[in-house]
Amino acid sequence: MTIKNVRTQSPLVLTYANFVTPQFVANVVNVIGASPLMSREVSEFNDLCQIADAVVINIGTLKANELSDIVTLSKVATNLDKPVILDPVAVAVPFRSKAVQTLMQEGHVDIIRGNAAEIAWFADIDFDSQGIDATGSGDVIAIAQLAAEKTGAIIALSGAKDVISDGHQTAVIETDVPLLSTNVGTGDALSSVIGAFVAESLTVENVTYAMATFKLAGLKASRQITTPGFYSMQLLDELAAITSEEVATFMTESVQYL
Ligand SMILES: Nc1ncnc2c1ncn2[C@@H]1O[C@H](COP(=O)(O)OP(=O)(O)O)[C@@H](O)[C@H]1O
Ligand SMILES: Cc1ncsc1CCOP(=O)(O)O
Ligand SMILES: [Mg+2]
């Protein structure tokens, strides 16, 4: 789905958010022309999944007594044929590892969007991290492909090199924009942006389009603003203004299918 279609169809993205970044995530979803909604109340998941076009589960500040809620959310969404995107924040930390194992075993996830260290955990490969951030280096293409094979999910690995793979088809977007990585919440926002773009159909192409759109907006913002505070505001403005034509040109120049 193109950014133009997102604006005309305005898909509703239901996000089980962490308590750190929901305002930013909601604004990002809003400025691309989609419709944000956050909830953590299990008794309304059925009603909300009926009206949602995609469901995003972020484990950033999950508590033990909420684990069964996210499993339920993933099942309700899947039964209603709505795509489920997992954002596995700092998944290598033991409580989070166990939570994600349970979610994957008892529930269902279609797409996993994380940084290289988070995706490496699914591939069973060591990759240095510091809390929410990936700090190491490695073969991110191999990591994404292996994680896709092991999980059966479409992998959206973000970083200086974004890699999207379902284990068969792999796309790479290589564009360095350091300010994008240092802003807390850009990863969470990207996960919900992916939700908007796969609302119509769950494909590697649509995930790639979402990642490219976000990256291009980040690149354009970095040409206007070089300090972190105003940068996140400029990113919102660039996302609001970005056109299908610009994204198409950027994709021709910067997206490589392997
Ligand atoms: N060094 C980088 N250069 C360019 N883009 C980056 C860089 N690091 C991250 N990004 C972009 O920042 C966004 C958030 O990704 P990331 O920082 O990996 O997620 P998280 O915040 O979950 O760790 C993505 O669009 C990703 O492509
Ligand atoms: C700081 C922090 N702590 C728990 S969740 C979170 C935000 C993570 O945001 P992102 O992964 O988008 O940088
Ligand atoms: Mg993150």
From TrEMBL:
Q: Which SUPFAM superfamilies match?
A: Ribokinase-like
Keywords in alphabetical order? ATP-binding, Kinase, Magnesium, Metal-binding, Nucleotide-binding, Thiamine biosynthesis, Transferase
The family database entries (InterPro entries) matched by this protein are listed as: Hyethyz_kinase, Ribokinase-like
Which species is this record about? Leuconostoc pseudomesenteroides
Name this polypeptide is given: Hydroxyethylthiazole kinase
Reactions the enzyme catalyzes: 5-(2-hydroxyethyl)-4-methylthiazole + ATP = 4-methyl-5-(2-phosphooxyethyl)-thiazole + ADP + H(+)
Could you say which residues bind substrate here? M38, G185
- HAMAP family documented for this protein: Thz_kinase (MF_00228)
A Pfam family for this UniProt protein?
HK
Pathway as given in its UniProt record: Cofactor biosynthesis; thiamine diphosphate biosynthesis; 4-methyl-5-(2-phosphoethyl)-thiazole from 5-(2-hydroxyethyl)-4-methylthiazole: step 1/1
User: So what EC number does this one have?
Assistant: 2.7.1.50
What job does this protein perform? Catalyzes the phosphorylation of the hydroxyl group of 4-methyl-5-beta-hydroxyethylthiazole (THZ).
- Name one molecular function that GO assigns to this entry: hydroxyethylthiazole kinase activity
Q: Which family does it belong to?
A: Belongs to the Thz kinase family.
Cofactors needed by this protein, per the record, are: Mg(2+)
Q: Where does ATP bind?
A: R113, S158
